Amino acid sequence: MSKQERVNFYKKQIEFEDIIYDKAEESIQGTDNILIREMIQSIALDSKKHASMLNALVSMHTKATPSVAEEVGQEIKDAITEHIQMEAEAIKTYQEYFETLDDEAEKIIVKAILNDEIKHHALLKTIHKMIVDKLTLNVQEFWDMVEEDDEFGYIGYSK
Ligand SMILES: [Fe+2]
Prior knowledge:
This protein has helices spanning 3-27, 34-62, 68-71, 74-99, 104-132, 139-148. With 159 residues, the protein is mainly α. Fe (ii) ion binds at residues 87, 90, 116-117, 120.
């Protein structure tokens, strides 16, 4: 695929993610079921996230972007370190809180938040390592490292 074809592909997917977002938002307008509404809304927000990631991919092809390792200053490294600590704190808080719950619908929502935090933490730790150790990882190495950094159990996180 040519560079232009890839850019076109990403742009097409951005439009599609936006449509998914709108449809999802529309579909929950009439519901009073809080569990259904929040779960569908969180999926819709992931569509927004995907659109943002696709935008980054468009930029990658259309602008001169420096490699991750080269351009990150100390300030950003420190901010990421702080972010990692905050995610870890959130994980502990939700984990402990989850244990106090009895209501299944409530448990589903809190667990979904917890799962996100666990994923954020593992991803951030790997990103931090890439920046600090100036690692250039391929896709397999990246996800292997996310799993290795998985002190909170990312691999089996969905249960
Ligand atoms: Fe988070």
